[in-house]
Design the sequence.
């Protein structure tokens, strides 16, 4: 039985992988074996960072909200439960966008949530 090398199929596979590794420095962008290793690792990083991207954006929105709320004399950790108690269902992304782009509307939301703020002084007395 003759030996089958799978020439065209293997060439296509190699070409696809090297195209994916294009732009990587040194051998990893030009040689097949290092390109395999680097693209596999790159795929792992890409998968993980798609998850981390969501976390980092939420962290950014919370930081922006906290800064905007500090200017208005409220803590972030008391503001979010007050929003829920006031029945305002805006997510952190929308709240942070409002704080930046439309401060008047954000002020109105803060004032709507202010009566529902938890006050530890009243709770202990």
Sequence:
């Amino acid at each position: 039985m003759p030996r089958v090398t799978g020439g065209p199929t293997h060439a296509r596979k190699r070409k696809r992988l090297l195209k994916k590794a294009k732009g990587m420095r040194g051998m990893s962008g030009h040689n097949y074996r290092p390109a395999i290793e680097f693209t596999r690792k790159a795929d792992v990083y890409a998968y993980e960072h798609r998850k981390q991207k969501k976390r980092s954006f939420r962290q950014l929105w919370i930081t922006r909200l906290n800064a905007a709320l500090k200017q208005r004399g409220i803590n972030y950790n008391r503001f979010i439960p007050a929003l829920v108690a006031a029945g305002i269902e805006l997510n952190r992304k929308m709240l942070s966008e409002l704080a930046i782009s439309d401060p008047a509307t954000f002020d109105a939301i803060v004032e709507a949530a202010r009566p529902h703020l938890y006050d530890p002084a009243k709770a202990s007395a």
Summary: The chain has one domain: 9-124. The mean pLDDT is 92. The longest helix spans residues 32-71. The helical segments are 7-20, 32-71, 76-86, 92-101, 103-113, 120-124.
